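Thread: sanity check for a docking pose with magnesium ion

Original post by kr_44:
Hi all, I'm comparing my docking run against an independent structure prediction. Below are the sequence and the ligand SMILES. Could someone generate the full complex and paste the structure tokens? I mainly care about where the ligand ends up relative to the chain.
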Amino acid sequence: MEEIIQAMDLSYQYMNEDEESVLVLDHLNITVPKGQFLSVLGHNGSGKSTFAKHLNAILLPCGGKVYVAGLDTSCEEKTLEVRRNVGMVFQNPDNQIVASVVEEDVAFACENLGVPQAEMRKRVDEALKSVGMYEYRDRAPHMLSGGQKQRVAIAGIIAMRPECIVLDEPTAMLDPMGRQEVLKTIKKLNKDYGLTIVLITHYMEEAALSDRIIVLEKGQVLIDDKPRDVFKNVAVLKQTGLDVPQTTELLFELRRAGIHVPFDKLTVAECVGELEKLLGGTEKCC
Ligand SMILES: Nc1ncnc2c1ncn2[C@@H]1O[C@H](COP(=O)(O)OP(=O)(O)OP(=O)(O)O)[C@@H](O)[C@H]1O
Ligand SMILES: [Mg+2]
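Reply from moderator J.T.:
Ran it for you. Here is the predicted complex with magnesium ion included:
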């Protein structure tokens, strides 16, 4: 399988206020194949954002290497190409809006890359359609909801035709409806357009939608597995200060109460299926 991202023995350190160096990424090895939907979890300060910033050369390794589409991110002359391959979406949609009309906002990064006018029109329209915001193209971005603004920000990245999008807690500032819209968009871009997704999130229900989860702790990979297998380790996750999806939590509590149910039922439908099996034979109450 072809890799889009390779972090090899990646280390990074910051200087703290006392001028001491603090190791934030500790010899990380992470490879992301093309087309994968990867979620990165970890409690506050575990190094998630620092890792994300290495993926489009906002930060450069102190030790080891990061390759994006085979390009060494520490080669300065490759920075633009690295950023063309990996687009970043951040937490606050307001900080990412630069123009006063949606379609101009989406075109902004492409304009900077020198994409010709006719090609740009095509890309902007396609990008807006792919995030479900085409009918808002003439609107003022500041009049949109948080979820809509975040989708416009994603469209701006899509218009650059990247191979991979890295989203650092893109739903953290959104209401439940906005979160759902953005998640649906991310999932669709991955499934229908084959875009590689690296999603950093604190929401376990979001991570449950991905192909693979990495849990970081103190700048190291603590867990790297499929969501079903990750969430089976309820005790380990809780020790790390992480939650599990509500479905897993319910099954976990049932098991603790001595009721035999499997752990690895992540979706609400699967969980309901298990509960129905449990209640099998009894009359439904509503
Ligand atoms: N610019 C900086 N200067 C000094 N230390 C920093 C800087 N940025 C981050 N750190 C420290 O590096 C560590 C990792 O930070 P990082 O932002 O990568 O964590 P995170 O996992 O994204 O956390 P969160 O869940 O809170 O977003 C933290 O201890 C943080 O205080
Ligand atoms: Mg962070």
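The pocket of adenosine-5'-triphosphate (ligand 1) is lined by residues 14, 24, 42, 44-50 (CB under 6 Å). Hope that helps with the comparison, let us know if your pose agrees.
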